[in-house]
């Protein structure tokens, strides 16, 4: 269980009307005026009559690579990728759509455990691919697709060559993507990540299901977040609480097992172990009985029973993280500041030692090829 269960719930048949098939080119034709700003004091760049979408490239590397084809295991098929991107971008340009593609350039220490798990999964898939090629001598199944090592670098160059806006995040990938989307008045977001569902973007489209058809349409699915809140009977602020209780990089589900047992008893669930759609529904039912996030002290006290619980502070940070991505909270987000390193004072004796070169010190001013064998 984890926050990605919220994304799975959006796509499942359990939530009727949660994912609707749409044609982005048809939506773009209906855009005749720019999106009205939600904050009058905020500067918004005029966006004319184009449908402006921001793309989280980390969620659709396989789609931008050109989809699956049998030779991908041989290495980066860059000509094939560039050909596909050229067709895709020409179709988007003719369809009155403007894209901004964002790649993850951050090193988030708080998400390091997620990165380690992802690298372990990639290593396992690569091992299965090599074993399959060695034993079967046939192309591996497409479910084992693994992005080539320099795919992100190649994508940046290819998209810039095609005159597409490309950016890299620096501090917090998800927060910077949603903040850019709101600040510059984008109509929607193309991604497949449950954290964006908690942020409630203007419109939320699937990057995984995007498909350029031969009939000239650009099809994908739109996630209807209004149906999510309507079905679960929650406000958008309460969705942030649900996302936090499902488990995330700040407060993992492994530390909430006792709380899940408590929720099962409160909501009268027969299954003591909450998973999938049942977990989302049970936690949503439990959250409806809690105080709103605006009364954080009462909320924490009712969940953990004691504000001194070591998880209480992590839960506060988690809820606030998702609130900072919403329309009313994104201006309040501040990137974490790196701790200042204390200057180390060297003693007088050490300074004197460093100041006087020893007899065996070598001259490092020349090139390596000019040094003697002894040096």
From TrEMBL:
SUPFAM superfamilies the UniProt entry points to: PIN domain-like
Q: Which domain of life is it from?
A: Eukaryota
| Segments of this protein annotated with the region Disordered | 341-375
Q: Where is the composition biased (Polar residues)?
A: 366-375
One GO CC annotation: nucleus
Q: Which Gene3D superfamilies does this entry report, sorted A to Z?
A: 5'-nuclease
Q: Which family does it belong to?
A: Belongs to the constitutive coactivator of PPAR-gamma family.
User: What is the protein name stated in its UniProt record?
Assistant: Uncharacterized protein
**Lineage of source species:** Eukaryota, Metazoa, Ecdysozoa, Arthropoda, Hexapoda
